[in-house]
What does this fold into?
Amino acid sequence: MSAPNSVIVPVVTVQPTASEIIEEVNDGVVPTDKFWVSCYKTSEPSIHTKIHVELDEEDRNLVKLNPEDRSLVFEFLGGGRNGYRVSASALGISNVQVLTPSQEYTDEEKANPTNPKRIDAFDISPDGSRFATGFLDGSVLIYPTSSTSSTSTYSSRKLTATANSSKVYSRPHLSGVTTVRFFPSSRVLLTTGLDFSLSILPADLPERNSTTSKPSSITVQPARTLRGHTRSVTATAIVGVGRNIVSASLDSTIRLWDVPSGSTISTISSSSAVLSLSMGERFDNAGAQAPADEREVPEVQSNIVFAGLRDGTFEAFDLGSKKACFHSKAPTQSQQLTSIAYSPQTKLLTTGSSKGLVAIYDVRSSFETPLSSFVRQEGGEVLDLAAFPSTAGDFISLGLAVATSDGLPYVATIGPDGSIHADELAGVDCDPVRQVRVRQFGDGGQVGQEVWTASDDSVVRRYVY
It folds into this structure.
């Protein structure tokens, strides 16, 4: 269901086992094989075809991809990246990247194919050395990451069995874990739960056993538990290095916390239950600041919190004044704002809804009307958003990684002319993808992005974008 004037973005899906099929042909296991690809756009005819895979007659080291439907262009991405490039002029699809994972992290204890334990919370550490997952039983696991290097020419996946790796285990909550978030140091983890609490966990990884070289696992207890909310905690933000944190809840409040004492500094009421949260810099016209509490770090006074609400609206709260400074109009269609993300580089705020609608606002102008909005196919609830700067020449545009309930996550780029281009994150087989994160790596002229997803099949996937 789309809002009036929303852009309809096409969808490209590829058989999840395509990379294994290509690998088997390349290795000579089978002489030829094929896999399916489909292209959709709401209210327009779909394209469903097969891609035939075979070795080149003259160069047996070259794999050829031949679509049955000749109107479709389907080729390898190249450039050391895993995936394909797809074009279908009939649906306005041009140079869409279908990225396949460079790594898939699974834990055999959680990812049993007959009964996988879905990942309800996920985060990657700022330094990229570890990631954390949270589950419905209140448990949290922290694992090390590994190098993305691969010697295979066509393999799009590198499986890493984290059940055989060192890991940290904790059960800080009585029931489901709702969020996990690393502090800037990467050595401390903030978790929240359905039990109304927040916890602070040590996130240092154990050393491998020096005598047996076997992986080690340790169990840790929360260093601190924060209580005060009266309903499930749904979202968090960390201020500065982490002396202060912000939390949001279904009890329609946002709390500013002092971590050393575990006490609440202030509580701000919202107009509806808060489902999502993002933090950005304070507006010039946000209003007079309230006197700072001695437990507040200086960064508190210069920040705004954006909250996505259950009633489909969003509010902006000034942490300096401890008051709401903006409340959007009620939507024309019933929906919930399940995700929200602010981009400091572009000064753009993005909301994602239970109806699959993504809307973009400029915080430097009026919030009343979005600059742009777009949807994909029906039924794809937006479960998470991650904003990042996408550079094209001298222009910095908005990039958005989008996690969806239909198992079709994607990355959208909004161009300087307002155009919207979507690239696909393949590899998930219909399982909802609940979390997405984007991490920048490299420096100077070699900067790139990694996109990480976590889904109901209990697999964490890593993409190089």
Remarks:
- The first helix runs from residue 18 to 26.
- The mean pLDDT is 90.
- The helical segments are 18-26.
- The CA atoms of residues 71 and 88 lie 6 Å apart.
